[in-house]
Design goal:
The protein is α/β, with parallel strands linked by helices and 478 residues long. The chain has 19 helices and 9 strands.
Length: 478
């Protein structure tokens, strides 16, 4: 019997050896195939590169000073006297009857703002307010970068502190975040803490804005800013961190996530621009007003984007005139704004009216004091005035749009880091989640905010803080 069984054993052994050889061969070929295909499926990133934005040629031998230097905002009698003199000399053109804010900043209300600025606004007091958080400067790529860095005063034992970089836009500043910072660094004191999330917040000024030195070379765009802010966070000792932004801050932080995704724990945005066009988008827009569910839109999406022509073409054209000036010849208009505090205030504050609520166009006072106080608004204007940074801030548009005219370059590189989106109802444009997914591949939270507009941290700090915490809590649980 064993003689009969032996051939079966030999047959099994032979088959086993063949199977093993086939398996090994398959694994080998499969491994080579995976290795060959691997580059094709590698996450595409934006090249970090390097730059030099200081005056003159980059020093070849001298190493850049990487020290972090304490910084304080200061003022003087001379600075205030000069401001008052210019305010006293202002000339006004009477507004058209019933024009409200349809022609821009209403000059009748502007005179009231200037009267308050001249007689009641206390710049010295506001400087003290600005200095309540620690300010610093450090030199990166030849220019001095200003930032505030706020840490929690108390950290419960065993609780991790999450570093959060928050980036402003135009015509805002780091001051936009002053009301949200304590909500993030001291959440328990403001009834926002579930005991698990606390932040240390870093708010830099974009180069050319406020107390960050302006680039001395052409070509400084959002990619360069993203690289500099990564270097800043690395210099502060952070290997991984969260990012948050709106306006230009949204573009910059998105570029940061595309550039070094391994350093970004999560990206939270309160403005998303998706400029991808094509037949699919056209069909989505056409069908969305009738059967939104068929193209992935919610009822709230439909309410916010329709009538489409009115909200996404006419309204954008009305609100983007400044963009065409700043994207082409910013220095021309900038010269006048840099010389006239009244002109500067009108130019900046008009945005805080219509970008906060589109219906404020109908109001004689632009609705400004219904959401902000004049001390807050004028403090932001003063940051541009005392630093003479309006021209360099406007140039940021030209540099970005010259390199990427339709602002779609960054949309060609997917964002794979965990992403949270807070969609405020009065934002300039609304981007439905289904459209955002074309670029942001890992949306963890998408929130339809109940109220608020473009300057979310400035206008609705508690709502924004709650959404950031909700997002980070979800990411930390992944």
């Amino acid at each position: 019997m064993w003689q009969e069984f032996l051939p079966n054993i030999w047959s099994f052994e032979y088959s086993y050896k063949n199977a093993a050889l086939v398996s090994v061969a398959t694994l080998g070929v499969g491994g080579m195939l995976v290795y060959w295909l691997r580059p094709r499926y590698k996450i595409k990133t934006i090249e970090m590169g390097d730059g030099w934005w200081g005056a003159g040629e980059r020093p070849l031998k001298r190493k850049e000073d990487e020290s972090i230097r304490p910084f304080r905002i200061e003022t003087s009698d001379k600075e205030i006297e000069d401001l008052h003199h210019r305010l006293d000399q202002a000339r006004y053109t009477p507004p058209l009857e019933g024009a409200a804010f349809h022609y821009g900043f209403n000059s009748s209300y502007l005179q009231k703002v200037v009267a308050y600025w001249r007689n009641q606004f206390d710049w010295r007091k506001q400087v003290e307010v600005l200095n309540k958080y620690p300010h610093f400067q450090t030199t990166i790529e030849g220019i001095d970068i200003h930032f505030i860095h706020v840490k929690p005063s108390y950290i419960p034992h065993g609780q991790a502190v999450q570093p959060l970089l928050m980036v402003h836009g135009w015509p805002g500043s780091f001051y936009e975040f002053y009301k949200i910072i304590p909500l993030l660094t001291e959440p328990a004191s403001h009834g926002l803490n579930e005991g698990d999330i606390v932040f240390e917040v870093i708010c830099p000024s974009i180069p050319g804005y406020g107390f960050s030195e302006a680039p001395h070379k052409q070509g400084f765009d959002a990619i360069a800013t993203a690289r500099i802010f990564h270097k800043l966070m690395n210099r502060l000792g952070f290997k991984e961190y969260y990012l948050q932004g709106g306006d230009w801050g949204s573009r910059i932080t998105t570029n940061m996530a595309q550039m070094l995704p391994e350093s970004v724990k999560g990206l939270h945005l309160n403005l998303v621009f998706i400029n991808k066009q094509g037949l699919g988008r056209m069909i989505s827009v056409m069908l969305g007003s009738y059967v939104p569910w068929l193209v992935g839109l919610t009822r709230e999406d439909a309410r916010r984007i329709y009538p489409f022509i009115q909200k996404n073409i006419y309204d954008l054209l009305r609100e983007s005139g400044y963009l065409h000036i700043q994207a082409t010849k910013p220095d021309t208009a900038g010269c006048g704004l840099n010389d006239s505090p009244v002109g500067l205030a009108a130019y900046i504050l008009e945005k805080f009216s219509t970008w906060t609520d589109k219906s404020f166009l109908q109001k004689e006072d632009g609705g400004l004091e219904s959401k902000y106080c004049l001390d807050e608004l004028l403090t932001n204007v003063m940051i541009y005035w005392v630093t003479s940074s309006i021209v360099s801030s406007m140039r940021f548009y030209k540099e970005n749009i010259a390199n990427d005219p339709d602002l779609t370059l960054y949309s060609r590189v997917g964002v794979y880091v965990p992403t949270g989106i807070a969609a405020f109802p009065q934002e300039i444009v609304h981007t439905p989640r289904v459209w955002a997914k074309q670029v942001f591949k890992n949306i963890v939270t998408y929130s339809y905010m109940p109220r608020g507009g473009h300057f979310a941290a400035f206008e609705e700090p508690k709502l924004l803080a709650q959404d950031i915490m909700h997002f980070v809590r979800k990411v930390e649980q992944l």
